[in-house]
Amino acid sequence: MTQAQSMPNAALLLAHAEYYRAFASRDLQAMMDLWAAEDISCVHPGWPVLVGRSAVIVSYRDIFLNPQQGIIEARQERVLISAIDARVFCVEEVSGALLMATNWFALQESRWRLIHHQASPLVVDPSRASSSKPAASFH
């Protein structure tokens, strides 16, 4: 990878890290600054799809107000990037539970902005799995 190719990856991974910092610090303003102004969606584990900025931001406000909300950490990031959008797939660990997350970003005004977040429970920790096949399939 050339330096020119790594620049978008670096900016994308910085935006991705900012999402998890905002979540960990329960910083609603920082979270709001990361999301695009329109055409956004989110699926928290066990929740229905949330569409629109107001619904998404209110969901984070409510999560941040929950005193039982566990600490969230991201690891094993994998990037899929194009000229105008990018996805970062990662494993989230929340209070010992593992989730597979997709954070989808759009390049808007030279900045990566979140347009979709989705997380769901993992059956097998991919770092410890002996094969790429999951233990069970829900589809």
Number of strands: 6
Order of helices and strands: HHEEHEEEE
Please report the number of helical segments: 3
Uncertain spans, ≥5 residues at pLDDT below 50? 1-5
Instruction: State the domain count.
Output: 1
For the largest beta-sheet, the strand count, sense and barrel status come to:
6 strands, mixed
Q: What would you call the shape?
A: globular
Name of the CATH class: Alpha Beta
CATH topology: Nuclear Transport Factor 2, Chain: A
Average pLDDT score: 88
Radius of gyration over all CA atoms, rounded: 15 Å
| Fraction in helix | 25-40%
Give the strand content. 25-35%
**Sheet/helix structural class:** alpha+beta
The main sheet orders its strands as 2-1-6-5-4-3
N-to-C span: 36 Å
CATH architecture assignment = Roll
Characteristic terms for this protein:
139 residues, alpha+beta, Nuclear Transport Factor 2, Chain: A, six-stranded mixed β-sheet, 31% helix, 35% strand, globular, disordered N terminus
Short description:
This protein is 31% helix and 35% strand.
What does this structure look like?
By secondary structure, the protein is of the alpha+beta class. It has one domain (3-121): Nuclear Transport Factor 2, Chain: A (Roll), CATH 3.10.450. Helices cover 31% and strands 35% of the residues. It has helices spanning 3-25, 28-34, 53-65; strands spanning 41-43, 50-51, 72-81, 85-94, 97-108, 111-121. A six-stranded mixed β-sheet has the order 2-1-6-5-4-3. Helix 1 packs antiparallel against helix 2 (28-34). It is globular.
